[in-house]
């Protein structure tokens, strides 16, 4: 997918402020982090077409609005993924601004994860 220069610049601006994890390390990170939530921030149609087994859907368009009801614990570890790691980076930055302290964006996103982890539709 071709992303616009403005969108790419926005993502690059947040990357120094967030924690990113390569997709190849997600399974181990989830195993090593009891209570962590895996959140798919893609569009709902993308989630329904296929997602990592056990991932919860909270799309980028609504995550900031709904996260406090979904996960009121600001200390709970959250792993976010999207298609490639761009939307999840932006969502991670916003959640940190909202007070969440253990947020991580999965670099590589769904495009990498579907080859690395069990998936479901």
UniProtKB/TrEMBL annotation:
The opening ranks of the lineage are: Bacteria, Pseudomonadati, Pseudomonadota, Gammaproteobacteria, Nevskiales
Q: InterPro entries given for it?
A: Rhodanese-like_dom, Rhodanese-like_dom_sf
Name the domain of life.
Bacteria
List residues of the Rhodanese domain.
32-121
Q: Which GO terms describe its molecular function?
A: thiosulfate-cyanide sulfurtransferase activity
Organism annotation: Solimonas aquatica
> Pfam families in the record, alphabetically?
Rhodanese (PF00581)
**Which keywords has UniProt assigned to this entry?**
Transferase
UniProt keyword rRNA processing, yes or no: no
Q: What is this protein called?
A: Rhodanese-related sulfurtransferase
